Amino acid sequence: MSYSKPTIVSKHYASFAQRLPRQEGRTVAITGTTSGTGFVAARTAAELGARVLLLNRESTRASSSLDALRSAVPQGDFEPVVCDLQSFASVRTAAQRVHALCPSGLDVLCNNAGVMALEDVATADGFDVQMQTNHLSHFLLTKLLWPLLEQSTDARVVNHSSIARLGVKTLEARYLGKNGGSLGGNGSSMLFGGARWVRYGQTKLANAAFTAALHARTQQAGSSVKALVAHPGLANTELQVTSIREGGMGALFTGLMMRTSQSSEDGALGILSGMFLPEAESGQFWGPGASMIAMKGPAISFPLERRYDNEATRELLWAESCKAIGEDFEPSAPAA
Ligand SMILES: NC(=O)c1ccc[n+]([C@@H]2O[C@H](COP(=O)([O-])OP(=O)(O)OC[C@H]3O[C@@H](n4cnc5c(N)ncnc54)[C@H](OP(=O)(O)O)[C@@H]3O)[C@@H](O)[C@H]2O)c1
Question: Domains, the chain, ranges and CATH?
Answer without folding.
Answer: 13-324 (3.40.50.720)
